[in-house]
Design a protein that fits this description.
Helix content is 34%, strand content 21%. The strands form 5 sheets. The protein has a 6-stranded parallel beta sheet. The chain is of the alpha/beta class.
Length: 342
């Protein structure tokens, strides 16, 4: 049975922290930016946790171990244990362990997070294609990963050794701007070998499976800032999602989102966990949320009214997504978004 296409953000009469038992939180752009806590994140997460919501932190970054991530969050004022952190390294290690014998050697192109995750699954990390590896795994290794590591991966993959990648994010944010991510490194090996890796991280199912296995969540809510990883991952896992506007996604990208990138809820920041969500209703030939009404015309989106900017954005989402159906909205929403300051 085909999944119904989302045409508007949903409403919720309950605070999201009460409607869902577990928040599966992305980190960079949601909880922190450049290593520092995003405004309202610490207080909002503390309130959600005090109300009984389980908080889990889900990251595609395979470099840092869960212990390291937990220590960082705790230093920011968000008490976190290593068991509360799920990484793409853990997801890919499980994927490998299901396809090679216990105790197998795995050639690692990446950092300590991968090595720790492989050992957790009873696998032996090795450094050379000459070590007779049963698999090759590639994950983000930081800015100082030597070029020769890609050659080692290429030698093994070219011989037919199964190849795995923690994730294929092409970019990663840094304190100085946007830097190449693991996906860019994967492309190096792909070009050299012509092979295709099995990928575990967001937005693919192995990562979602890992989060559910480790958290035991029954009513999870994915919370993220990226449409192509966090929100698409929720879509693939068939669970609800909350997009926060503290990271990379802007209003224009949200309005143009195809079905797999449309979040269940939209809010400014993590305070959205602590509140209900307003309904978006039909109003004539348009859609109304709060004091705003949005309408799709022949070549543009129009917005009338006044009130909270976020309500206007929600109404615009309904108009844009309904007009687009199972595609991407190509109507001009620039003037409407400008009215909202977005």
């Amino acid at each position: 049975m085909s999944r119904s296409v989302r045409t508007r953000p949903e409403g919720s009469g309950q605070a999201l922290s009460e409607a869902y038992d577990t928040a599966l939180l992305d980190l960079d752009g949601v909880v922190y930016a450049g290593g520092n806590a995003i405004a309202y994140a610490v207080e909002s997460l503390a309130t959600a946790r005090a109300g009984g919501m389980h908080l889990a932190y889900v990251t595609n970054n395979a470099l840092r171990t869960p212990d390291t991530v937990a220590e960082h969050l705790t230093e920011l004022g968000i008490p976190t244990g290593a068991d509360d952190v799920i990484t793409s390294a853990q997801a890919v290690a499980r994927l490998i362990s299901e396809q090679v014998p216990a105790g197998s050697r795995v050639l690692v192109i990446g950092g300590e997070g991968l090595r720790v995750a492989l050992r957790e699954r009873g696998l032996a990390p090795v450094e050379s294609a000459d070590d007779d590896p049963a698999a090759v795994v590639q994950g983000f290794g930081g800015p100082d990963l030597p070029w020769g590591r890609f050659a080692e991966a290429s030698y093994a993959v070219a011989r037919g050794v199964p190849w795995f990648a923690s994730n294929t994010d092409l970019t990663i944010p840094s304190g100085r701007g946007i830097a190449p991510g693991n996906g860019a490194a994967v492309e190096v090996v792909r070009i050299a070998t012509g092979a295709e890796p099995q990928v575990a991280g967001k937005p693919l199912p192995p990562m979602h499976r890992e989060t559910i296995l480790r958290t035991g969540a029954e009513r999870p809510l994915v919370v993220g800032d990226r449409l192509d990883t966090d929100i698409e991952g929720a879509f693939n896992g068939e669970v609800d999602s909350l997009l926060v506007l503290t990271g990379v996604t802007d209003g224009a990208q949200l309005l143009a989102a195809p079905p797999q990138h449309r979040p269940t809820f939209v809010d400014n920041d993590l305070r959205g966990l602590l509140t209900g969500q307003p309904e978006v209703g039909v109003a004539g030939d348009g859609f109304r949320c709060g004091g705003w009404t949005a309408t799709a015309r022949a070549d543009r989106l129009e917005l009338e009214g006044e009130g909270e900017a976020l309500d206007g954005l929600r109404a615009l989402c309904a108009a844009a997504w309904t007009a687009a159906g199972d595609g991407s909205c190509e109507l001009d929403g620039g003037k409407a978004l400008a009215r909202l300051g977005l």
